[in-house]
Request: fold
Amino acid sequence: MNLVIIKYNAGNIQSVLYALERIGLEAKVTDNVEQIRSADKVIFPGVGEASSAMRYLKERKLDEVIKNLAQPVLGICLGMQLMCRFSEENNVNCLHIFDEDVKLFKQVVKQQAGNIKIPQIGWNNIYDLKTDLFNAVPEDSYTYFVHSYYAALGAHTIATTNYIIPYSSALHKNNFYGVQFHPEKSADTGEQILRNFIERCN
Amino acid sequence: MLSKRIIPCLDIKDGRTVKGTNFVNLRDAGDPVELGALYAKQGADELVFLDITATVEKRKTLSELANRIAHHINIPFTVGGGISSVEDVNVLLQNGADKISVNTAAFKKPQLINELAKEFGSQCVVLAIDTRKEDDGEWYVYLNGGRTKTEMKCVDWAKQAVELGAGEILLTSMNHDGTKQGFALDITRTLSTLLPVPVIASGGGGTMEHFVTVFNEGKADAALAASIFHFKEIAIPELKQFLFENNIPVRILQENINK
Reply:
């Protein structure tokens, strides 16, 4: 298995690499176009800011490369958001693989429960799970999230999470998969999802 | 629903876990990576590693430790202790830490918080505050592991730090730390309802009821404890089950359901 993690100006790449190691997989971290194109599977991670990440990808022509990949691609967190149509984070046009838009959580004040905090930090449920990405993952499993922006529900939603409103915690279209949560930090559930992507997603 | 987090804290000295009462009288509780992995398996939601080593070798030891933790542990972790520059943080994040916590250095140079948030994002910048309630009824900020008093009120510092970009507050009550008499509910609730970022309550957790109270009355987003976990006075699966039965949203592991 020739597994590639796309290297760009975003955090958590090491964490994804180590998580793959824990489940017995080696991956190459690279921004080399040929290595990305020739990989069996591609992981597009990311913690960071949308507009600067898009600028970085465009400068290196990685935006066109990612959009045109034919092998299975898994976007994680910002990686997933960049695969959407548009992000409200500094109002940037993204890769438009998924038609969904990325929006900012709006602060809601509940008198009894205190503020709803933004970013959402912590473990939340994923439900209405679809596709083999969630093989053997029970409904309402907990995964770890850290984000202020979310992808709206849409035709490509394959997992839903509630925080202020229901939103897409995972998306899928053709060979492209994206998760808002961090499988690399989501304990056994996260490892199962990574394993599913490697073993079952085409 | 977003769950309330249970966070074991591992104080590290020379690569080993220690925990004192009221910040003195250290006792050894084992290898941090092994202990951390055990907690992760038991259902801890996150881990905090605080380095209290004061030698020049410290920086290297801490980044090596972060690297070992990142390789072995499959939940998020924060590293803190003597972090004072963007470069310190860069090395730790490169070695796999998810978040870092700053305390004294940030107080002395608040702009550090802003620099860190700009460079790495607020989500990885945890501001740790050690605070003590004085006779005047006000909570004051203490520095240097609780040894140095300041005239700054805890609420004012927390507000300023969040404006500068702190993404989370780790609030330790020195009045409660090590007492096992319960968390500081008033200051925890004040910060948690005032601030737009999560508040981690620390200091005083001694019984499972204390955790219910700090979530219900203290409005904490997470609760941190050390010795009660290290010395097995409270086991994390039982604590999670107890919280669940008391209608606190918590992450219960599949293998622990129906037990």
Summary: Chain B has one domain: 5-256. The two ends of chain B are 23 Å apart (CA to CA).
